[in-house]
Amino acid sequence: MSEIRGLQAWLKLILNQQMPALDLVVQQVCQLDERNEGNADDLAKIVLRDAGLTTKVLRVANAVHYNRSGKPIQTVSRAIIQVGFLEIKNITLASSLIDSFLQGKPRQLLLQQLSQSFHAAVQARALVPRADAAKRELVFIAALLRHIGKLALLATREPVAENFVRECREYPDDEHAIAMKFLGVGIDHLSRELVKEWKLGDFILEAVQQSVPSGSVGALVNLADSISVHLSAGLQSAKMLENWAQVAQICQLTLEESQQQVLLMAEEAALTANQYNAEGLVPLLPNRAQILAHSEEPERTGYEFSTQLNTLLKLQRVNDSLSRLLHATVICLQEGVGLPRVALLLMDYQSKSFAPSYVAGRDTQLWRNQAAISLEQLHKGEVLYDLLRQDQMCWHKKQQCAPALGALQQFLPYDGDCFVASVRVDKRLFGLLYADAAGKSLDERQQTEFELTAQLLTLLLQQSEAKTSE
User: Fold this and answer.
1) Residues 36-63: pLDDT tens digits?
2) For residue range 328-343, what is the model confidence (pLDDT) as tens digits?
3) Which pLDDT band, with edges at 50, 70 and 90, does 178 fall under?
4) How many whole angstroms separate alpha carbon 50 and alpha carbon 40?
5) Were both Cys, which of 38, 137, 141, 273 would link to 281 (CB 3.0–4.6 Å)?
6) What order of strands is seen across the sheet that includes strand 341-348?
């Protein structure tokens, strides 16, 4: 086979690949205009043609990021009304695009590139004020597709394309020169032509360019992309120090607050990947523990708990996303209270079970896919059975005569202390807050602070639901 070089040669190869989602669903959805009321029905029809896509769209629409009420959304039409046309449109786009790149058996390099794009998308969404919900979702899609050219190249499985991406990952600031060496065309140029061919719209066209005006959508996407590329080098790397300053300026935060936001979004990326049925990306996404491991660990001052509580209150005051509030609660318990392993398990009313959605600490990433607690499997005399009946926080101590762990055994397979509390909103069971000492003992200060955090979370959730129903 002759060498593939230049724009036309690569376009011809890529466009001949079997990517049906990019050819059909994505193009149809991109052509829908939110200003035309009839397009809501058209969007519902597009989604309903594919049972698998329908299931995925409803799963994401029911996630706390979109469905703040917690009341199950069971139809696409209801999702469009309750969550919003633009939000469901972009959920559909993201689901279709992710499926198109994950079909078959994608190679590791493609998974790595897609996970980086996913992380950037979540970071980009956080850079837009919550009040501008439409722009937040557009920026999410734009960042997800920032590297559409690289993703499409990797989907061809051509060795030269893989060598190009490998070298870009090693030298991210030399992307254009590397593209000319391996491909014979600039990667931004290739990406722009693909966006035009697939009719993805002007918004995406702006996002795939390196040189964009300050304050534009493209600038937000490039900043988020830089964070996803350089965060693994640690919080104090030269590039990340530049990124912190930009995030602080855009979001009107202090440098410390901007760091906390980026770390929270790194955790959010894993949760979002699960919601989009892209669990295979989760191990490749950076998590808080990995990032902090590459950074100097600050000395504890004794004010960690009050600092984290202030963060929770600020998130509620500015009406930030419910998802970020829940993440911040878990981080408050781990870093503020000093609890080694923490999880917030949300109630799934359809399956009548608790699923670990927000986690922090060693080995807790495994809980998301491997641990769940069914209400039907609880038995009298177990910790959770008694907890849900009495609705009081429980401190299960090691080597003491106490109720059996039962369903909690999967979280605490070794002998150690754990805390667990139920979280209710207007008597409706919202979830479970769990923490353990990783085989060690817990103390009374931690008990008091755990209980206070659980009570504050309940109060904030009640306030959030009151705002939603107004």
Assistant:
1) 666 888 888 988 988 888 888 888 888 8
2) 899 999 989 999 899 9
3) very high
4) 17
5) 273
6) 373-374, 353-360, 341-348, 428-436, 418-425, 394-396
Tens of pLDDT, residues 272-321: 888 888 888 888 888 777 777 666 555 667 788 998 888 888 888 877 77
Q: Cα–Cα distance between 154 and 197 in angstroms, integer? A: 18
- At residue 320, what is the residue type? D
